[in-house]
Amino acid sequence: MLENISLCYSILEEHALVEVESSNIFMTVMSGAKMTINGDVLTTKVELHHNDRVVFSSGHVYVLHHPHQFKKAEKEGKKFETVTWSAVQTEIAEKSGYDVDRKGKTEEELLLQEDLISLMPMVNEVNAMSEELDKKKHFDIALVSPQARGLSGGRTFVMVKMMDLVQGNYWMWDRNKFINRKYKMQEMYQNYVEGDEDWDLPADIDPFYEDVHSHVLIGQSQVHLKCLAYQIGFEESIIITDYEARERGFLQVEIEPLKNDGTPIGDEDEEYFVEEPSELIGKSLTYNFRILGAKGLPSKMSEDVYCEFKLYLDETTNKTDQVSSKNPDWSWHKTFVHAPVTEQLLEYLNEEPLIVEVWGKQKLEGKKSAEKLTTKQLKTQNEKEKITAVMKKVAANPTTANLDVAVALRKVETMLRMINDMKGLVTEAKQAGKTTVDISAIDAILTPENTRLEDVSKIIELEKDNPDSQVCSVQ
């Protein structure tokens, strides 16, 4: 007798088909459903074996107990490892491409690994809730270096990036904020499941909401101050990078050493120049630090842009005015005086870069047509846009390898279109009260030949070592 198992979080009414043939058990994932077997995404009919780890959607984990196979293995003296929640998540993380090997890892690397493995199922769970509640938000894991957080040292943190699928805006949440929001999301989802008419909450208390008018970190520049240890000034245009090390523009800064009377040190003021930084110890170091402006910032984040930083032992943050522009002109300056110069200060100037953060507000540029789409449809659309972006990148650099990727990407794009056409065909049949679909209609959709799933593997293989690749984010 077949029994329905009640689940939640993006579990379809018909999620998977389990078939028993003699003593063999097979499982087939249904259209639109998400499943993994032993960490691998299930796409076709597979045979299950004793101790297989079966995960429905984002976090419903089951371990198969196969009596016949278990007894046979027991007679042969074979032992099975005890399956734990942690082991399943580690397996999924490993199959997703993350390094989960603990051998040779530092304490910081192990902490990063643990954070990653613990957050991954939570992110999957929240994405499932967002899709079912149609919140039009998508969450991703983000590894953020200390420099990307405005620090000169420390360990890499696992953060969560929340993307507004309509507007294209995003916000970065630290671990604690994400977990706190997740509990509130679960409460909202539970109210929804129980049929509470007031399950949806006002924006100010909605756990899926983030103020669109809040500032976000565009990126940061590292200003090296070693020249000050020699009383030498400079004016430079320094790259601004975000947490993914992508270029987000250039920051124009100037450092001008000053004499004791506050006037600039000129070429004729030889008594102020030093051959060794240690000659400054016990003396006074005075200079102007200027943030002139920035160039080429993302148009999407060019509202109310400002810079901020803390220098050396400052307890207060230095901050420019806010300017709305892709190329803001701040003309900000401040005179700093260190008296007397110490060995600690010289060590800072020689070894520690000054981190200048650039912040801005995101514009609301979403298309009205996008508001009518469901969260699931928006995610599919977003995946297509990623493929298009990669194809444009490849077209701009037509090397032999890139051409291979472009061909494969074109085939993936064709497959996505065919899948959507197939879904449309099934929907039309259901609306017409039909239980079958004309083979010729299916054949017409599948006309493009030589479009195989192997092409997806080819893309991943070609792009797996490219740190800037977005291909593997297409699921």
Strand order of the largest sheet: 4-3-6-7
Reported for the largest beta sheet, the result is: 4 strands, antiparallel
Number of β-strand runs: 18
C-alpha geometry? elongated
Radius of gyration: 28 Å
The number of helical elements comes to: 10
Percentage of residues in strands = 15-25%
* N/C terminus separation: 35 Å
Determine the fraction of residues in helical runs and give it as a percent range.
Answer: 25-40%
List the uncertain runs. Answer: 1-6, 448-460, 469-475
Name the helix and strand elements from N-terminus to C-terminus, one letter apiece.
EEEEEEEHHHEEEHEEEEEEEHEHHHHH
Secondary-structure content class: alpha+beta
Could you please describe the fold and organization of this structure?
The protein is α+β, with helices and mostly antiparallel strands. The protein is built from ten helices and 18 strands. It has a four-stranded antiparallel beta sheet with strand order 4-3-6-7, covered by helices on one side. Strands 11-18-15-16 form a four-stranded antiparallel beta sheet, with no helix packed on it. Helix 3 (107-133) packs parallel to helix 4 (175-193).
Sequence-ordered SSE layout with sheet pairings:
Elements: E1 16-21, E2 24-29, E3 35-37, E4 40-41, E5 46-48, E6 53-56, E7 60-63, H1 67-75, H2 85-95, H3 107-133, E8 137-144, E9 157-164, E10 170-173, H4 175-193, E11 215-223, E12 234-241, E13 247-258, E14 285-295, E15 303-309, E16 318-319, E17 329-338, H5 343-351, E18 354-361, H6 368-371, H7 375-396, H8 400-431, H9 439-445, H10 454-463
